[in-house]
Structures are given as C-alpha cells and as structure tokens.
C-alpha cells in the first residue's frame, strides 16, 4: 500500500515526488517511458529560474530526479496500463504489477500531436521526427522542414540550424504564435525561411523522406518541396485515456481540477500538462506538482484516523 503514488516523471511528477518525499511519505513514482518528461527532449531550457545560462532539458530532469531521490522518493520504470478510482485505496495496474494507493497524483503530461497525413507513421524515424534534440544530428548538412508556429517549433527550428543547411518553417497561418524573443532570433537566422498559410498534406518518400506536399490554405494551390527531414511541432494531447469515464475532463481531454489540484475523485490529484492547457511550461508544471503533493499530504493528515 502506497501513501502517495505518482504517475509520471516529468517536471510535475518529479516536483510532486520531492515535496511528498520531504513530507516523509516515501512516494513511489511510476515513470512511464520518459524520465524527465517532455522537458528532457529539448536541447536547452532558458526560462527555468536559477539557471541564468540555461540548462540542457535532460540534465534538468536528472537534477529533479536526484533531488527527489535524496529525500526518499522511489522510482519504478513502469507504465500504468489501467486504474480503478471507484474506491480508496485506488488500484493502478502496470504490465508487471498492481499497486494500491491511498492518494494518487496524476502527472502523465502530454504527447505530441501528429499531422495525420499519408506516410507520416510509415516514415517516422526515417525522416519524420517529433524531437529535434533526439534526431537533429542525423540531418547534418541536410535540408529540413519544421511544421508549426509556436514556441516549440521555433526553439527546435533554431536548434536544427546547428546541423541542417536549411530550415524551412511551414505554418498554416500568416503570423507566428511564438514569443517575441524567439521570433526575432528565428527571423534573423539566415538558415531559417518561412512558408506561410500552408499545411503539409502528404509526406513523400519511399523508405525515407525526400519531400513534402504543401497546400496553400488561402489559394488551394499545391506543390512539392524537397526535404530530408520533417520535424512536427503542432501541439500536444493530454495523456488521459486511462482515466476516461473515471474523472471529470474538459471536452479536449484535460483533467479538471480545482485550485488545490483536486480532481473530481477525493484523494486523486492532477498536475502539469495533463490538466493545464494554458501555461505548459516546466516552471508552471513543477509548481503544480508541488501544490498537488502538499494537498495530498494534507488529505492524508485529515484522513489519518480513518
Ligand atoms: C520540444 C519541446 C521544447 C520545450 N521547451 C520548453 C522550454 O524551453 N521551457 C519550458 O518551460 N517548457 C518547455 N517545454 C514544455 C515542457 O517540457 C512541459 O511543459 C513540461 O515537461 C510538462 O511537464 P509535465 O510533468 O506536466 O508532463 P511531461 O513532461 O509530459 O511528463 C509526463 C510524464 O508522464 C509519464 N507518463 C505518461 N503516461 C504514463 C503512464 N501511463 N504511466 C506512467 N507514467 C506515464 C511520462 O513518461 C513522463 O515521465 C518544451 C516541450 C517540448 C516538447
């Protein structure tokens, strides 16, 4: 029986683990497949306070983990595959185990959206990627396209200019959503070009990517563009399928919580991108993870005599 079981080891889950560990609750974290979460996929994080020169995403995740472990957090490299939240203790099943938990903190984050166009899945890992830090190196002296117009698209596009000779950002609107500093850096980078009002309607290539078919959303005109790689950064979907029907969710699938990170089931808390479509940052996710652990601690204190 776990006092606090945490699902997810991104900034939210690891911060929750730190706070629950410092409350001497010896939390268990089921990490899923991505220790450090999405943050570990990005090359440099420049907006997490305390690191004036920035820090590699993977390194920050590892520091979060070490700090939580120092106070007694435990980690299982396992994935939750089913949950039963109908009564306490809650049940969480993984491929190899079943856990019982007095409180549950859900911090399963979000996964990148796919374009859902022909050949996208077939060519994933063969030129199609959702992670510049992981795959950028393979595109040394090659041409790549980046799909998207938000912070992630520009951050990762800028990172790709280290390797690629040419980075073309394809955006379905005529204005970027990314922050001003990133926009300025991208526009001033001679390797970055923009194609506006355009979507990728198909990925081209036999066995490996050699181009994309583009469609101008204003004129309907289509054309093919040669490229060696397609990096897709068009938003995320919360990882909440496991909890469908058991917790209140928004129509977009985010878990609904109140200000204390409490979900619709007493004793179940949620933090980070699994419940937050608005801020989606390391610092905000970490803050929500801390809040969830504080609330779980209070909940356990209030129910200690049961
Ligand atoms: C390319 C990129 C660049 C970014 N750059 C920045 C930046 O510069 N600054 C910034 O502040 N933010 C940045 N972000 C956003 C930031 O990474 C996220 O806001 C943050 O990681 C969200 O944290 P989280 O803990 O809520 O979820 P996530 O980081 O998504 O972590 C989810 C965790 O849940 C686990 N998990 C999932 N399903 C299960 C399951 N069934 N069972 C158990 N575990 C599970 C995963 O393995 C993972 O450990 C970037 C994101 C991306 C993708």
Automatic annotation (TrEMBL):
Family membership: Belongs to the class-II pyridine nucleotide-disulfide oxidoreductase family.
Cofactor remark: Binds 1 FAD per subunit.
Pfam families: Pyr_redox_2
Database matches in NCBIfam families: TRX_reduct
EC number(s) recorded for this UniProt protein: 1.8.1.9
Single biological process term from Gene Ontology: removal of superoxide radicals
Catalysis: reaction(s): [thioredoxin]-dithiol + NADP(+) = [thioredoxin]-disulfide + NADPH + H(+)
Alphabetical list of PANTHER family matching this protein: THIOREDOXIN REDUCTASE 1-RELATED-RELATED (PTHR48105)
Superkingdom of this protein's organism: Bacteria
Catalytic EC class: oxidoreductase
UniProt GO cellular component terms: cytoplasm
Required cofactor names: FAD
SUPFAM superfamilies: FAD/NAD(P)-binding domain
PROSITE patterns for this protein: PYRIDINE_REDOX_2
Keywords: Disulfide bond, FAD, Flavoprotein, NADP, Oxidoreductase, Redox-active center
Protein name per the record: Thioredoxin reductase
Lineage: Bacteria, Bacillati, Chloroflexota, Anaerolineae, Anaerolineales
């Amino acid at each position: 029986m776990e006092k606090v079981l945490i699902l997810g080891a991104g900034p939210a889950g690891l911060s929750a683990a730190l706070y629950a560990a410092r409350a001497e609750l010896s939390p268990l974290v089921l990490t899923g497949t991505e220790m450090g979460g999405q943050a570990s996929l990005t090359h440099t994080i420049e907006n997490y306070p305390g690191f004036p020169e920035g820090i590699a995403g993977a390194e920050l995740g590892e520091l979060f983990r070490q700090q939580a472990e120092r106070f007694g957090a435990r980690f299982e490299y396992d994935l939750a595959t089913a949950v039963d939240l109908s009564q306490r203790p809650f049940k969480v099943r993984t491929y190899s185990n079943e856990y019982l938990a007095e409180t549950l903190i859900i911090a399963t984050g979000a996964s990148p959206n796919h374009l859902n166009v022909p050949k996208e899945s077939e060519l994933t890992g063969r030129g199609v990627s959702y992670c510049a830090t992981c795959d950028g190196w393979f595109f040394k002296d090659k041409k790549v396209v980046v799909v998207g117009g938000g912070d992630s698209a520009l951050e990762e596009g800028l990172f790709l200019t280290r390797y690629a000779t040419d980075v073309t950002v394809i955006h379905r609107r005529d204005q970027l959503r990314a922050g001003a500093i990133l926009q300025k850096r991208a526009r001033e980078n001679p390797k970055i070009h923009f194609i506006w009002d355009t979507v990728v309607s198909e990925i081209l290539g036999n066995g490996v990517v050699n181009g994309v078919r583009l469609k101008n959303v204003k004129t309907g005109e289509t054309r093919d563009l040669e490229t060696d790689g397609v990096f897709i950064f068009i938003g995320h979907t919360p990882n909440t399928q496991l909890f469908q029907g058991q917790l209140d969710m928004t129509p977009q699938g985010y878990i609904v919580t109140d200000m204390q990170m409490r979900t619709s089931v007493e004793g179940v808390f949620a933090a980070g991108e699994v419940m937050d479509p608005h801020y989606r940052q390391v610092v905000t996710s970490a803050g929500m993870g801390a809040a969830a652990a504080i609330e779980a601690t209070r909940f356990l204190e209030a129910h200690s005599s049961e």
